[in-house]
Each structure stands twice: as C-alpha cells, then as structure tokens.
Amino acid sequence: MHTAANDRQVTVLIGLDLSAAFDTVNHGILLEQLQLEFDVTGTPLAWLLSYLEGRTQSVKLGLHQSPVVKLEVGVPQRSVLGPLLFAVYCSPVGDIITDRGVLYHQYADDTQLHLAMSVDNTVAGLAVLAAYTADVTC
After folding, report:
1. Pairwise CA distance, residues 129 & 97, whole Å
2. Residue 67 pLDDT exceeds 80
3. Which one-letter DSSP state was computed for residue 40?
4. pLDDT at residue number 126
5. Which end of the chain is more exposed for a tag (fewer CB within 10 A), N or C?
6. Distance between CA 100 and CA 23 in Å, rounded?
7. Residue 22 half-sphere exposure toward CB, CA atoms < 13 A
8. 105, exposed or middle or buried, with CB in 10 Å at 0-12, 13-18, 19+?
C-alpha cells in the first residue's frame, strides 16, 4: 500500500469478517484439505482426526443444562489449533483472491483485501473487486 501511494495510486481496502465462521468448518472437508493441499498424512492426520471427533456441546445457565449434542462441524475458536485449522479450511479462498489479482492478508476469520489502482482507472479496479465478490458468493 505504501508503494501504491508513492506511485500516486489509490488503494481500496475491504475487510471481511466471517461471523460464526469457526462453527461452520466441515470436518470431512478440513481433513481432505489437510491431506491434499498440505500433505498431512499418517500419525499427524490421525491425531488431528482424534482432536476433531467426539466433541460435544451443551449450554448451562444456573441450575439448568441443555442436552449434550455431538458436534459434527466446527473447530474450537479459543484454542491453539482452532485458527490454524480454520486457515487450512479457508485456504482455497486465497486462490480465488489471487486469481483476480487482489492482494490479501488473512488471519483466522478476518480477511483484508487490498487493490491498488490508478486514479484515472478506478472503474477497472472496482470491476475486479466486483468479480471477486461474485466468485466468493456463488
């Protein structure tokens, strides 16, 4: 962004925050991503599978507690592995972003897109962002 300013360009910054994103991670897709994209196999993959399976959740309020429910999706947000596993799960989004020529920074469920463009040609830059948005929402 500093280089763009030195080159007399404007930078558009878009912040994406996926609400409840950690709760939507599909364990099957995550494990497939770990194997195919990150070459995690054998004992490390088995360890991560054991970390994900058998998780349960309930809510307690005062003396009342809801029934225990088995979790088929999601990773713990306030854990060491949660943000890392979420980043693995969302890694294909990075490919979509870079295919459009947009730079990005991603940490856990927060993504910042930034695109530098000439002041004389903002229409083309905004069209790239619109096309990216259409790709992600499909």
Report:
1. 9
2. yes
3. -
4. 79
5. C
6. 28
7. 16
8. exposed
Instruction: Tell me which amino acid residue 111 is.
Output: T
Q: Are 20 and 77 in contact (CB under 8 A)?
A: no
Which stretch of DSSP H or E encloses residue 136? helix 122-137
1 in helix, strand or coil?
Answer: coil
- Report d(CA 45, CA 34) in Å as an integer: 8
Tell me which residue of 16, 12, 31, 35 sits closest to 108, measured CA to CA: 16
What one-letter code names the amino acid at 98?
Answer: T
Count how many Cα atoms sit within 13 Å of the Cα of residue 75 in the half-sphere of its side chain.
27
Identity of residue 70: K
Tokens representing 69 are: 């429910």
pLDDT at residue 59, rounded to an integer: 94
Residue 8: phi and psi, rounded to 5, are 60, 45
> Would you give the DSSP letter of residue 109?
T
